[in-house]
C-alpha cells in the first residue's frame, strides 16, 4: 500500500492542466525507439523503468513524494507506484483530452517545460512516460487525486477509452502498470540486480525517500529490497568505501543553495590509488562530468595547496600539489539540482552550464576551509596522503623517463620478447599476451604474422592494486607490456598511440592462468581503463577438451559441452550398430565393433596452451573465423571497483567473506 506523504503549506503550488504544455506528437517513437531509449536491447528495456521512476523522483525532489514502489510481475509486466500529487486528469486546454491521456500519448507533454510544475527535474526532455506507453503492448494508469481513483487503459500508445473514476480515495499518487512490446524489444528479461543497483543509487541521491523493489515474477522465488537513506550522499560515499582503509573518518559534506543551484557534495579518502567521482545533475548520472565536476576539482586543488602552505605541510621551495595528487584515493559524490540544466549530447552525459563551475567552486572552497579548521586530524591525514602521492608521482616520472631514455639508447623501444606483426595499421592489429615461453612458442608459430603480435610473460606480474605507479614501473614484465602497447602510462597515456586495436589475454585454463588473467585485468582497470571502456581488451577462450573418435573430433570449451560431445559420439556408435544390424552382420563382429567404438572415445584435457601444437592453437583460439573471445567491459564501474578492491586489496577479511559467500557457485574448480 502506498502511503500519503505530508505536505507543507510552503509547497502547495498549483499543479493542474495549465502546467502541462504540449510541444509535439508521439508518432515517431514506435518507428525509431532507439532515438528515445538508446536501443531495443536490455539497456533500452530497463530504460522504460527508469523513465517511470524518474517521474516519481521528480515529485520527491519537489517535496511531494516520500515513497516509491517498483514491482516485477508475471508475464513481463512492471508496476510502479508513488504517493506524489498524481498526474492531473482534467481536460487539457490544448488537446481537449484529459491531461492524463495527453501526458501518456503526446511526446514532450509534461510539467517540465514551463510554469511551476517542477522547479528541478531529471526528465529534461519530458518524453519519459509517453515513450513508455508507446513502446508497451498495454499500459494501465491509475491516479489517486481529488478524492477519487482514476483509471485509463492504453494499447501500443493509444487510449482504449476515456479516463474514468473507478473509486474513492483520500490518498494521492500515480500507479503505472506496463508490459513492454515483444515486437519491438530484442528480449524481454528484466535484470533484478540492475534494478536494485539503480534504485539504491536513486535512494542515496534523494534522501528521506523510501524506495521498495519487489520481484513477484515467480511465486516460489519472491524477493524484495527496501532502501531509505537519511544521510543521502554521505551514506553513498560510505557505501562506496566499504572494505577500504579510510583516511578521514569524518566525511566532508556540504549542502548549499546559491544562485538557484543546489550543491550537495560528500568526500572521503581511502588508501587506494584511484579516484572515484560520481556526479549527478537532478539525479541523472553525468558519466562524462561537466562544469560541476570541473568546479569541484579546481576548488579541491586550490584549497588543498592553500591550506598545506598555510600549515607548513608544503615548503616554499616545493612544487604545488597537482589535480592528480589531490584526486588519488578520493571518493566523491557530487549531486547538483538546477532548474534549467544544459546537457551536452543526447545521453545527458555531460553538464554544460557555464555558471555552475564557479558556483560549485565557491561553495566547495568555503566549505573545505571550514572542514579543515573543524577537523584538523582528518585534514592532516588527507594532506599527508596527497603529499606522499606527489612524491610518488615525481618518482614515477623519473622511472618512466628512465625507461624511455634506456629504450632510445639501445636503438629500440620494443621489448626483445615481443614478436611483432608486419602490419603497421593499428586498427587492423592485435596482440596476444600469453603465459610463459612454451605457449609463446606455439602462438608465434601458429599466428598470422601479418596482423597478430605475441608477447610472452614470465610468471605472474605485480599486483598493482597494492602498488603505486613508481613501484609498478620497476616490474620488467609490466614495462615490456607498457612499451609494447605504445600508449604510455599515467599522465602521458595517449590512447591514440595504441599500437594494437585488440589486446587479447591468452592464459591456461587452470588456477594459475586465472590468477595471471586477474592480475592483468587489475592492471588494465587501474591504469589503462580507457582500453576497457574503448572495447580494446579481450580474453581468449582456448578449449578445455578435445573429444575424438577415429578421425572425427570436436573441441569443447565447458564441462557441459564435453558431456554433449560424448553423447554425440555415443549416438554415432548406436547409429553404426543399427546400420550393422540392418546389414545382418555377424553378432560377434557387431559386439566387437560396438565395444571398440565406445572405448575409442578419446578425451584430451588441455592443461596448458603449450600442450597444443601451433596448428591446433591457431584453429581453436587464434583464427578470427573460428575462435571464441570475450570482450571485457565495465557495465557497472562501482561494482567492478568493489570487486577489484575486495579480491586484490590489502584487507583479508572482505576477501574471505567473498570467497565463503560465492564458493558454492564455483563448479569444477581445478586445484
Helices and strands in order:
Elements: E1 21-22, H1 28-31, H2 34-37, H3 42-61, E2 67-73, E3 77-82, H4 99-105, E4 109-110, H5 128-134, E5 136-145, E6 148-155, E7 158-159, E8 164-168, E9 173-180, H6 192-205, E10 210-215, E11 223-227, H7 233-240, E12 252-258, E13 261-269, E14 276-281, E15 284-285, H8 291-311, H9 323-327, E16 330-338, E17 343-344, E18 350-351, H10 354-374, H11 376-409, E19 430-435, H12 436-446, E20 452-457, H13 469-472, H14 476-485, E21 502-506, H15 511-527, H16 529-533, E22 537-540, E23 545-549, E24 552-556, H17 559-582, H18 587-599, E25 602-605, H19 614-622, E26 629-631, H20 637-648, H21 652-662
Parallel strand pairs: 2-10, 14-16, 19-20, 19-21, 21-22
Antiparallel strand pairs: 1-4, 2-3, 3-9, 5-6, 5-9, 6-7, 6-8, 10-11, 12-13, 13-16, 14-15, 17-18, 22-26, 23-24, 23-25
What's the short version?
Helices cover 39% and strands 20% of the residues. With 671 residues, the protein is α+β, with helices and mostly antiparallel strands.
Overview of this protein structure:
- There is one protein chain.
- With 671 residues, this protein is α+β, with helices and mostly antiparallel strands.
- It folds into four domains: 9-227, Heat Shock Protein 90, CATH 3.30.565; 233-393, Ribosomal Protein S5, domain 2; 417-542 and 629-665, Rossmann fold, CATH 3.40.50.670; 545-605, no CATH class.
- The protein has 21 helices and 26 strands.
- Strands 2, 3, 5, 6, 7, 8, 9, 10 and 11 form a nine-stranded mixed sheet that branches. A five-stranded mixed sheet has the order 12-13-16-14-15, with helices on both faces.
- It is flat.
Amino acid at each position: 500500500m502506498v502511503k500519503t506523504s505530508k505536505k507543507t503549506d510552503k509547497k502547495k503550488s498549483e499543479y493542474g492542466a495549465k502546467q502541462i504544455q504540449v510541444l509535439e506528437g508521439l508518432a515517431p517513437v514506435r518507428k525509431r525507439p532507439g532515438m528515445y531509449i538508446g536501443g531495443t536491447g536490455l539497456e533500452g528495456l530497463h530504460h522504460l523503468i527508469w523513465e517511470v521512476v524518474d517521474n516519481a523522483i521528480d515529485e520527491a525532489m519537489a517535496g511531494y513524494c516520500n515513497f516509491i514502489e517498483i514491482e516485477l510481475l508475471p508475464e513481463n509486466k512492471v508496476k510502479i507506484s508513488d504517493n506524489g500529487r498524481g498526474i492531473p486528469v482534467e481536460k487539457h486546454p490544448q488537446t481537449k483530452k484529459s491531461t492524463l491521456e495527453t501526458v501518456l500519448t503526446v511526446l514532450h507533454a509534461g510539467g517540465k517545460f514551463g510554469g511551476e510544475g517542477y522547479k528541478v527535474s531529471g526528465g529534461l526532455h519530458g518524453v519519459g512516460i509517453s515513450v513508455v506507453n508507446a513502446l508497451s503492448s498495454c499500459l494501465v494508469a491509475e491516479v489517486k487525486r481529488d478524492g477519487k481513483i482514476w483509471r485509463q487503459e492504453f494499447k501500443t500508445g493509444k487510449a482504449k477509452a476515456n479516463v474514468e473514476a473507478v473509486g474513492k480515495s483520500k490518498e494521492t499518487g500515480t500507479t503505472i502498470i506496463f508490459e513492454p512490446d515483444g515486437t519491438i524489444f530484442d528480449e524481454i528479461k528484466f535484470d533484478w540486480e540492475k534494478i536494485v543497483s539503480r534504485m539504491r543509487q536513486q535512494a542515496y541521491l534523494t534522501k528521506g525517500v523510501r524506495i521498495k523493489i519487489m520481484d513477484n515474477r515467480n511465486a516460489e522465488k519472491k524477493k524484495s529490497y527496501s532502501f531509505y537513506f537519511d544521510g543521502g550522499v554521505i551514506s553513498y560515499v560510505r557505501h562506496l568505501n566499504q572494505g577500504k582503509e579510510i583516511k578521514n573518518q569524518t566525511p566532508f559534506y556540504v549542502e548549499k543553495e546559491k544562485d538557484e543551484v543546489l550543491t550537495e557534495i560528500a568526500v572521503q579518502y581511502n588508501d587506494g590509488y584511484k579516484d572515484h567521482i560520481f556526479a549527478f545533475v537532478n539525479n541523472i548520472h553525468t558519466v562524462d562530468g561537466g562544469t560541476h565536476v570541473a568546479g569541484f576539482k579546481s576548488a579541491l586543488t586550490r584549497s588543498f595547496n592553500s591550506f598545506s602552505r598555510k600549515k607548513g605541510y608544503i615548503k616554499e621551495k616545493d612544487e604545488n600539489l597537482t589535480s592528480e595528487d589531490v584526486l588519488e584515493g578520493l571518493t566523491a559524490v557530487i549531486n547538483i539540482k538546477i532548474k534549467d540544466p544544459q546537457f551536452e549530447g543526447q545521453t545527458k552525459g555531460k553538464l554544460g552550464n557555464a555558471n555552475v563551475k564557479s558556483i560549485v567552486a565557491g561553495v566547495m572552497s568555503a566549505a573545505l576551509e571550514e572542514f579543515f579548521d573543524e577537523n584538523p586530524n582528518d585534514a592532516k591525514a588527507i594532506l599527508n596522503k596527497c603529499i606522499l602521492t606527489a612524491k610518488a608521482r615525481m618518482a614515477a616520472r623519473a622511472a618512466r623517463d628512465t625507461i624511455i631514455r634506456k629504450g632510445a639508447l639501445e636503438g629500440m623501444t620494443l621489448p626483445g620478447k615481443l614478436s611483432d606483426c608486419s602490419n603497421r595499421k593499428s586498427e587492423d592489429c592485435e596482440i596476444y599476451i600469453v603465459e610463459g615461453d612454451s605457449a609463446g612458442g606455439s602462438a608465434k608459430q601458429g599466428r598470422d604474422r601479418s596482423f597478430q603480435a605475441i608477447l610472452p610473460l614470465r610468471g605472474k606480474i605485480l599486483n598493482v592494486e597494492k602498488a603505486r605507479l613508481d613501484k609498478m614501473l620497476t616490474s620488467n614484465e609490466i614495462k615490456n607490456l607498457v612499451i609494447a602497447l605504445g600508449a604510455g602510462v599515467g599522465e602521458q597515456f595517449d590512447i591514440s598511440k595504441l599500437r594494437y586495436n585488440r589486446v587479447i589475454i591468452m592464459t591456461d585454463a587452470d588456477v594459475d592462468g586465472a590468477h595471471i588473467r586477474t592480475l592483468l585485468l587489475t592492471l588494465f582497470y587501474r591504469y589503462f581503463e580507457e582500453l576497457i571502456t574503448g572495447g580494446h581488451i579481450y580474453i581468449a577462450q582456448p578449449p578445455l577438451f578435445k573429444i575424438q573418435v577415429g578421425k572425427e573430433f570436436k573441441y569443447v570449451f565447458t564441462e557441459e559441452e564435453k558431456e554433449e560431445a560424448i553423447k554425440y559420439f555415443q549416438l554415432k556408435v548406436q547409429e553404426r550398430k543399427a546400420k550393422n544390424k540392418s546389414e545382418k552382420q555377424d553378432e560377434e563382429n557387431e559386439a566387437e565393433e560396438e565395444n571398440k567404438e565406445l572405448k575409442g572415445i578419446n578425451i584430451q584435457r588441455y592443461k596448458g596452451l603449450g600442450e597444443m601444437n601451433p596448428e591446433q592453437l591457431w584453429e581453436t583460439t587464434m583464427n578470427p573465423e573460428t575462435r571464441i573471445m570475450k570482450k571485457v567491459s565495465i557495465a557497472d564501474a562501482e561494482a567492478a571497483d568493489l570487486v577489484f578492491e575486495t579480491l586484490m586489496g590489502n584487507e583479508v577479511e572482505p576477501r574471505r567473506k567473498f570467497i565463503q559467500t560465492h564458493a558454492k557457485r564455483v563448479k569444477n574448480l581445478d586445484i
